[in-house]
Amino acid sequence: MSLDTASPSESQTSLARRPPYFFREEYSALIVRGNFMTLAARPVHVDEGEWLAHQVVEQYRLLESMIAIIRVVDEKTGQSICNPEVCPTMSASGHTYTWLDNNKRPIKIPACQYIQLVQKWILGKISDPNLFPTDTSLPVIPPFQSSTAEWLGKSSGFPANFEGDIKSIYRQMMRCYAHLYHGHWLDPFWNLNAHKELNTCFIHFVNVGKLFNLIGDKEMEPMQPLIDLWLVKGLLPAPEQAAGADTTPTTATAPAPAA
Ligand SMILES: [Zn+2]
């Protein structure tokens, strides 16, 4: 396939008329062939809580490898690619995400700082043995006294707030992806020929998020045009399919970050 018709060197005038590169079919390719459903589907004998904990940690690892690409420091300026000058706010497609200050007031901070805070926050969550228990043989201590309450992951030792927390983690990871695309698709992902890796990590993230209902449509809105392209290609489950996964996975190649 030739890239001539929509090369990222085209003029600003034509940019104004066409959607951003990453929302075009010709740039939506992946580094992995095959079905992402098989990577996301929970093995029959694995508890849903354990599977989602595994998925969230894996998704974070992939996102982290993509974030590392925008953190590379330019030798000439001494600044990272995503820095407070080029990205003064955590923005994506008209959305500006705010952080809460010590008085719980929303504040706008540079994207690089926002992403750093998100990473610190997520790492704190996934390394918290109360939230992500590593030894499931330990007795479960519910946060409130109730013998009848049920929650996701209860049977394998996850606390009642587990589902809410992994959804919050997912929401923040989504914002990071939205910034990677809207702020940095051309530089550095296209320039380094790493845009397919970015697509591959992101489609896997979206697929798991949709399949296990970890993220809502509203939160995916800044990236919806790309998600729609993948839906049309059958690379993501149609909305009616995304109501739960209980199939036996077959082998699939896991997406790998750019070398
Ligand atoms: Zn940025």
Automatic annotation (TrEMBL):
Q: Spell out the Gene3D superfamilies in the cross-references.
A: MOB kinase activator
| Pfam families assigned | Mob1_phocein (PF03637)
The species this protein belongs to is Trichodelitschia bisporula
Q: Which UniProt keywords apply?
A: Metal-binding, Zinc
Against InterPro entries, the record matches this protein to:
MOB_kinase_act_fam, MOB_kinase_act_sf
Question: Where, in this chain's numbering, is Zn(2+) bound?
Answer: 82, 87, 179, 184
What highest taxon heads this organism's lineage? Eukaryota
Listed SUPFAM superfamilies: Mob1/phocein
- Entry protein name: Mob1/phocein
